[in-house]
Amino acid sequence: MTYQVHYAHIDRMNGLRLPEEFLERIRDYEAGRAQPPVPKHASTVMLLRDRDGRLEVFMLRRVSSMAFAPGAYVFPGGGVDPRDSEYDQPGADWDAWGEAFGADARVARELVCAAVRETFEEAHVLLAGPSSDEIVADTAPFEADRLALLDRSQSLAGLLEEHGLVLRADLLRPWGHWITPTVETKRYDTRFFVAALPEGQRALDVSTEADTVVWIRPEDALDQVKAGEMFMLPPTLAMLNDLLPFGSVAEVLSHERRFTAHEPTAEIVDGVPYLVLPDEAAHQYGA
């Protein structure tokens, strides 16, 4: 994402000014000379914990060499893997997940499995247990399995079956839905989840795609973005902002959240390319 340096320059039209290189791309899309890439399904998990009476969320800073959003603070997550569809939890209401995320039951199942897999890969937190009402207390014995997930020599379904574990979809809650704008060459149809850090587990700095991790209060993260001390993409800001009314993990997880999909648009205004944001993201930049 090459326009990150312009995020401080949001104006009254709720738009982020884009580099001139986007002009031709936008014109090609508008004229039908090119078609935008189809977005890939992806899952992102906002891991939460209570600390000193305040809510905190786990974030990673992407390494500068990443093609997408280098240097951005993000939540654990990534694209759906084809083998995420191999696991089917007995009794899981995938239709309900699909209703929340605007997807069919199969895609919903893949999204939930991707959320669990990515959280384990990137934070060493495993939302699974020996039964539907238990959770793994120590993930250290599963490090070889985590590495096998990363190199795709093992699937999430294979890991769970090998260790006699059950995926704990009930520990997740749907929280948001954002689609990468058409102006991007890499696009994701991303569903955001919230989940409590399981008792006994620790979120670790293990992701090869991140150079630092932090537990931070949502309000502190937003203040640091405004001060230019942290960089985040608009969906991340919007998701953090939506945590502000809650004082604890329990309050977040008990909240009956309703949301729609948001997709910023690319427009040319007076010969200048802009990325136009939904209000809930734009106001975080001071618009």
Let me know the number of strands: 12
**CATH architecture call:** Alpha-Beta Complex
Whole-number average pLDDT? 88
The stretches of 5 or more residues where confidence is low (pLDDT under 50) are 1-13
Percent in strands? 15-25%
The separation of the N and C termini measures 21 Å
| CATH fold title | Nucleoside Triphosphate Pyrophosphohydrolase
| Outline | globular
Biggest sheet descriptor: 7 strands, mixed
Count of alpha and pi helical runs = 9
CATH level 4 superfamily: Nucleoside Triphosphate Pyrophosphohydrolase
Order of helices and strands: EHEEEEHHEHHEEEEHHHEEH
Question: What is the share of helical residues?
Answer: 25-40%
Radius of gyration: 19 Å
Count of structural domains: 1
CATH first level = Alpha Beta
Secondary structure class reads alpha+beta
Keywords: Hydrolase, Magnesium, Manganese, Metal-binding
InterPro entries: NUDIX_hydrolase-like_dom_sf, NUDIX_hydrolase_dom, NUDT19
Cofactor: Mg(2+); Mn(2+)
Domain Nudix hydrolase: 39-238
